[in-house]
Queue: 3 jobs
Job 1
Amino acid sequence: MGLLYFLPETISTINIIPGYFLGHFPMILIIGLFLSLIVYLCYKLKRKKKIEKDGDFLLTIFFLFWLILTAFWTVANVLDYKRNQVYYHYDLPKKQIARVCNLLTTDDGLCRIFSFIKNIQAIVPPGAIVKIEAIDTEKTFLEYYIYPKYKYTENNLEADYLLYYPEKIIKKNK
Amino acid sequence: MIILKIFLYFISLLVPGYLTLWCIKTRRPLANLLNLALGYGLGSFFVTLLYFTAVFWMHMAASLSLWWLVCLIISLLSGFFIFFRHGIQATETKNIKEIKTTKRQKIIILIIIAFVVVNSVSLISSTLVRPVATFDSLSMWSGKAKTLYFNNKLDFNPDSQYFLGGGGHNNYPWQIPLMQLGLSLNFGGYNDLYTNFIFLAFFIALLILVHSFLFRITNFYKATILTFFLFSLPLVFYHGFNSYADLALSFYITGSLIYLFKWLEFKNRADYYLSISFFAAAFFVKDAALLYLPAFFAIFFYQILKKEIKKYECFRYFISSFCLLLPWIFFKFMWNLSYSNSGSGLNMIFPVKLILSFLGSLFVSYSWNIWIFIAILVFIIKFKKIINDKLAFSAWIFVGISIISLILAFSFAAVSQYAYDQTALSRTMMPLIISSFLAVGFSLKENKI
């Protein structure tokens, strides 16, 4: 991603933080190699003893290079903070919707589960046992958010209702 | 009122943890940030372990009164030991140099403070508005807490969808779900927003632990810069408000390592017991702790080889950790729960793709900023010093063996797909990356621990 195109919740994932790129080159690699070159030059040219003895000097160099991307990251966090302010007064269910929808902008399927849950609540009586037919991720999200109002099962015979997603079909089973 | 409830929850962990810590080591100032961090870690482990025993073994209802009863029992037991026997004198290190910084260093520290303040505001704001919404949280960590909260009791029927808490992996340990359950019980309703504070607390405790250790072995300036690097590692920071187990696992592995090093230096039993407790806790947080077991073995092996410790001390270390974890290990055994994440079976494909994935995480992603370069540079520059210093060498052994262990685990086990698609590799590496901060700290060491 580009340097100014970074908002933590829309791009970050819990598994990995995508890298910044300059053209096709990863910034981490560019900055890291440049840092290595500077340290090598300092080491070879005139500050060999200073570097070997004094870790403070070395850490100061590291710090300066560290700040390059940290500065962009901080700007992104500030922008993120500004965007967060809208949500302070939301109640918990609204915050849940906002987070899921903001978190995974590329996957509308997950954001749309909340409108499906609304439909379920309008049709299926509380306490009913449901079976969800959906792909793994969407199924997990649905199961989490409909519980404890509805219990879910894998057994067709046990289920009062069958729920199909993303088709958004609600079918009475008993 | 909400603040009071959350405060009470943390008190319910801190008081037993603090008293347990006091049991292990005495004559230390009470108002000490490090002790608070350690107390939080110990309290979280012992309270959830006993709660686990009550709910999972004795089939008691998961209630608020049980939560406070468990806290009371641990506090009373610890209080009893404190009263009737002298604790062990904790390692008091030699005089730490006064904080002396040059004008240039003061400017850098001011810059660091500014960055920390700005980013902390963002972190706290995220903690306050972002309920859990990531896959593993919903399918496991928070999902299990929610199920147990509303079911009140664990479901032991293997045909049920909620068998042993339900969710993606019913073989996963319970500390994180039980901590979330505890918060919801104290809060008086299931809440998957305020549980974020549990992870924020682990993040702060980790920073305190690492800064305190680095300050002891280096100086204030170095410790502050290195801790700032840790604070601003984007992936670790992001886990600071997300309900995943990796940050807590990193906290316990790091704590265990720090006190293991302290024990190796001073042979003080208090440090030994603390290390054992943290090591055991890591296994009650996440099975991935197993990946770091060979690295712990390697440190002991090296120290035995150097005749720094005796074999029985190594043996006692692992046996004691095992004994602490008996309720969980027996439970796994009894219900035939495996350690494997995705079934057995070996994946014997040569791991070129995996190595590329590994390198991608280290050198292309922004997960660790440029930390990997820094660690490599320090290792090269301070190599002579490292091989002459047994503790520094041990710390780097830990890093090296952990890398090998991770590569082997992801190469030859059936979990390699999680490395290829980057859904688990980077966060599984988190304890390794954080342990490399200790190794770098040792390489820049000025004082004894």
Job 2
Amino acid sequence: MGRGGSGRAPIVGGGEKVRRRLRAPEDPAAELMPAAEFLGNETDFAAILEGFRDTPFDPARRRVLGRLMGMFAMDYQGAQPVERRFLRRLLAAGNPREGYVANRGLHLCGAPPVIRRTLALGVAEIRFARGRVVGFLGAVQARVAATTFRLLGPRGRELLWGLLTLAGHGDAGPLPDADRVIERALILKAVAARRHRLGPWSRDGETALAEISAFAVGIRGCTRQSLAARTTLIPGDPKQIAPIIAGLDDPAARAGLIARGEIDPVFAWQAHGASGERATAPAATAPAATAPDATAPAATAESQVHAADDALPDLDRSALVDRPRLHWAFAQARVRRAEIMLPGEREALSDFITGGKMHDKKVVLKDSGWRIVKDKGFDIAGEEAMQGIRLDAQGIYRFDSARALGDLLSRYTGATYVRRMFSDQITAGADPLKQIVTALIRGLAVPIVVHELKITLVKAFAAIGWQGDSAGAWQVELTEPSMGKEMHLPAKTLLLPVLPPDFGRRARAEAYMAPAALDLLAPPFGIPFPALGIEDQL
Amino acid sequence: MEYLQKGLIDGGKLRDDLMPHVRTLAASWIETGVDVGVVDILAEHLARWAVELEAPVGFEQIAAGTAYLDLAPDVTELLREAVGQQASATELAALAVHLVDIAEAMALVIFVPELPALSAKADRTGDAARMVGVARHLKG
């Protein structure tokens, strides 16, 4: 049994309901998660909920939050110590709910653990002790930051990893008064704010990277208070209001500037004069990972443990990391037709990296396409990576295509996408049609991959609309975006062993991309608009 | 863009007849080379602007506040039509959601055709199988 609960033995038996107060748990995290108590020790959920009735944590009032607490309990009990420490930090922060939602979303994104924890803490930690509860970034911004980071090119990833590694450091090493987690979260937020400039055919990608780099150096080693006040234009600290806001009489223009500052910390930082209060004290000489001195204050020991937890691992430099960006480049080249490269060049490059056979003519087209990638592209991939990707596709195939599909689809949509196989879902007793229609009802399209049985041909469609009141009568509207073809058909047709001829010869629906995780937060960007009927669903 | 003359809100919610217009606009903007990434971040800016907005905002103010995004003429035209003389916070939020819908529709047109290639790998031919065998042998 995990240590998430209070550690006491069950005292309720035979379904008997009792009313009692929860005792103070040994683990502070348990105070915030009745479901953990339930899973760990308790046989009567109703008895536990008595202690939380009419509080913000009353699951009866917050159905989705209650489900989240259940997930949290399972996360916590199954977690390693480093993850448990992180979850406790998350819950002790001022905005734990959104922080935890961000953590779930980042889990589904497959963000590296340190990046996931950094971003989730950036969401959970609040900037100002008073006034509006605002994290350093929002849950959706955190997801966008993680996706943008993963879709960066090799040079961008390398640069960013270096900046993240140096966060919280002065000339002589780590600064104890600096907050490297928040620094990192802000750097990643700056990356997310430049996502439209970091694409594979961007013309000012280099400038965007230079701005991120200058920002990271500028905020390096600043105190947390300084980071909180000077990377936003929200006037939370009356002593640190940016001059462009303070001197502005036009409320609409002021709102526009504050909004831009909420998107881009670099803009806010520059508006504050691009300077902040530095944490000047040198770091403790002992390495963070060593056992803390027994005589040192508990807070120091805890911060040393956190420092060890926050250490960045080596950057993943596998060639396969570049494959999604290559496909992103091809996808954009396809819709821009010959403006970037000829269709034949794009197809030859695509065939090359997917391990296809290359005859002489195709090699010529591939080489010419590759020159365009090198000359016009922004940090797309190196030649060695191309070869590595091809070898992988021809051989062992370690490429995680499901995650790459999710990354690209999540790029400009309001959800994290995960690939689900129709056959797996049916075998597991799930209802894929219900999942698809539920997503459509929420306004999210569902891409569907169809496979022709006789030959290795895969086609992609997207479910974009539905009709019908009952499960048996659902009709879905499908489109094939590349052809502009649209069709309406009964939803249950998707489960047939052989689809109608419109899908190809002897085709069957293989997989669909299910939107998940951040659809828990109201779109867009986690901001509810009650006046429009767009509510916070937690 | 005549559909915008009736506004984006009907009965306190986004009009439910917008999706065909969304798809038409998405296809048209892709044709004219509008960058979906810019539409995406413009939507975020307007959504956050709507949250902060206390007084109505005019088109010129929005154009000035989003000038850093170097918007394509088609996008600017949509903003002009949708904002009209002035937009309240709710109307600006509706415009942001509308732009999100357009960006999503554009993303589907761009990325869904790439899905087959993204999951493609070479057939498990004899050559491929031999390469796997060689790799395993080398790995020990």
Job 3
Amino acid sequence: MSVVAAGTWVELERNVLEVGERAPGLPIDTAAVPLVLRVSGFLLEPAEVGAPARVRTLIGREQEGCLRVVNPSYSHSFGDTVAELLTIGREEQR
Amino acid sequence: MSRPGTSYAEVLARRNEIMKASLGIDYDALVTSPIAFDYDTMMAQTEYSLEDIARIQRETKVGETPLFELTNLTDAVRRTCQPGRGARILLKDEAANASGSFKARRASISAFEARRRGYAGMVVATSGNYGAAAASQAAQRGLACIVVQEVYDSQGVGQPEIVEKGRACEAYGAEVLKLSVGPELFYVLLTTLEETGFFNASLYTPFGIRGIETLGHEVGTEVTARFGRQPDVVVVTHAGGGNLTGTARGLAAAGCADSRVVACSVDLAGLHMASDHDFNRKSFTTGHTGFGVPFATWPDRVDVPRNAARSLRYMDGYELVTQGEVFYVTELLTKLEGIERGPAGNTSLTAAISLARQLDEDQIVVVQETEYTGAGKHHNSQLAFARQRGIEVRRGDPRENVPGRAIVIPERLDQVRTTPQDLDRLRRSYLRNAADRHPVAQWSQTDVAFLAADLKVTPDWVRSHLPELEEPVEPAATQDRAEVPR
């Protein structure tokens, strides 16, 4: 496993509440999984993916967790075309 | 001194002291019983006049948004109704605010207040547009901002709209704590407030609500000046109740005593708001009945001791629409009016179409918000995502919509028809929730007077509906209970 250099923009993940520590009265499916937190920041010390790491966030706070992603990015899009939408408006136009 | 405990129960037990430190509002001084508190004094304590609020908002690119007349859509609606019917539909383009939604109005006053009182930053718990609004306003006031956001299910999958909202928060320089599904968003908010000593820029403080008053005031004054009459109906997308409360208060301040304020939510009956499985089966993340109904029937379920957003106090009607109808109307707005806006803001536009059909041609319906659109926050993104998750998407009769299973997009405009909710049923549900917190036998005259004001009814109405508290009365739309503030 290669070591990620300090200063790299990464995403960490940690369990905030384990199963059994969660709020009372949750639906069964939610109660059966931990509450997970992900947060991004600049790596403070070199670390490997999957290993414990610390980051400094955009506002300068320190956060801890397991290094999950190097250079986390956004890839959400407009999605595959939903053809059902395309004709809307034609029939309502004069 | 030993470090305070971090278990869920230990942190929740400290909520009142955490709130006091992070808000600077002494709610205890306002509270007179487990039910009643001095609402008017709480709102007045913000000490800002409407002019002050408008000035503060102008400094950070908020307010004075355009009010468009949707002439093509109005004409199309008139072709689907009786001669002489079909009110003019106006649209307040709130997407023009910094960060692209009316939520900037709410965040602007909190950011100003946080700065004025010397806080170094502010924290918000939201999965909605409010995160971006808070981050944008904090950036302009030189404050740090942390957004606590419910983003993913347990498989790490987040729907495109929420992922986009998180991206926007980071774009404005916020630290975003991205959580998996669960109401413990509130727990993370509390621990973050405790760790940082930041301001709690909750959506539900008096600052969060008073910031919206300018919206209602702008609508009231501009419609009156341009059209020579008050708006007949103002339609408000309804979730936590702040949008409706602030807008109605602003309309009243503009002298629009006769304008009807009508709430509208997307009907998501049957989907549980705290369910990991149901999380990504909702194609709307706010403005739906999963928040709208529980927050109307018990406002004090939020991240502050007493909620400044009290929708039944101001609500004259409550309409439900289906997901498919909103997606249809979003596309129609684009094609007929030449503006692309995000779907969540078009929930009230959908209701406006149905309401306009029932009104006369010379009457006016105002849709009081839009939101920005883009990758993720777009009806095509959401429908493509739903289809990918096995949810049926087709054209047809919108009555065949089944939340989480089928999104049926209308084939024709005349199929867009809202379902009115029975407000008295919601009021009775509220009274039952009040009785759960404070036994009816112990209700004082002050309690009854508070309940009457909170429900927009007379004290006699409250007294005459006490016996019904013994019978189970659930609102029609949903039995879900949201405990997560948005």
